[in-house]
Write a structure and sequence with these properties.
- Keywords: Coiled coil, Signal.
- This is Periplasmic chaperone for outer membrane proteins Skp.
- Belongs to the Skp family.
- There is one protein chain.
- By secondary structure, this protein is mainly alpha-helical.
- It has a single domain, classed as Skp domain (Protein Binding, DinI Protein, Chain A, 2-Layer Sandwich).
- The protein has five helices and two strands, in the order H-E-H-H-H-E-H.
- It has a two-stranded parallel sheet with strand order 1-2.
- Helix 3 packs antiparallel against helix 4.
């Protein structure tokens, strides 16, 4: 039995032992279904895609310019067009530009992640508030997330996913 299965089994035993007789106090929700049902998610994804596209275009443009310079330098070097000093200078310049491209790529990945967080955090907050509201209104004290693989078994009557989606409408 692998470690994950042992952990899941242990967690399940602890949950059932802890909540024996309190089954009506525990519910589950599929937060991915909830979040994907929200209109804000589609808008956020479109904005993120546009942002990513702009950064990718900028990066691709710089990569193409670098590749052109590199090809020209290689052609000139192979035909003996550089002195040793010029060759070293060209190599140093191209090395710096290559490092700038790596830095730009790293910066772009961070910008995309930051943009994703800023776009999706309000959506997560709204979904969590709706989940809490539905849980309180229904008398549930604990809500598990089935999209995280935490729920190994549950009766359909304890699934509050649709109620949360309805609350968000």
């Amino acid at each position: 039995m692998n470690l994950y299965k042992k952990f899941a089994l242990t967690a399940l035993i602890v949950l059932f032992a802890t909540f024996q007789g309190a089954s009506q106090e525990v519910a589950y929700v599929n937060s991915l279904v909830v979040i994907n049902s929200m209109p804000e998610t589609k808008v956020a994804q479109q904005q993120l895609d546009q942002f990513r596209q702009v950064l990718n275009q900028e990066y691709d443009s710089k990569v193409n310019a670098f590749q052109t310079k590199l090809a020209q330098a290689q052609q000139k070097a192979s035909s003996g067009g550089y002195t040793v000093a010029q060759q070293k200078e060209v190599e140093a310049t191209l090395g710096k530009e290559e490092q700038q491209l790596r830095d730009l790529e790293t910066s772009s990945v961070k910008k995309i992640k930051d943009k994703e967080n800023s776009l999706y955090q309000p959506i997560y907050n709204k979904a969590n508030t709706a989940i809490a509201d539905v849980a309180k209104a229904s008398g549930f004290k604990i809500v598990l997330d089935s999209s995280a693989g935490i729920v190994l078994y549950a009766e359909a009557s304890t699934d509050i996913t649709q109620r949360v989606i309805d609350k968000l409408k």
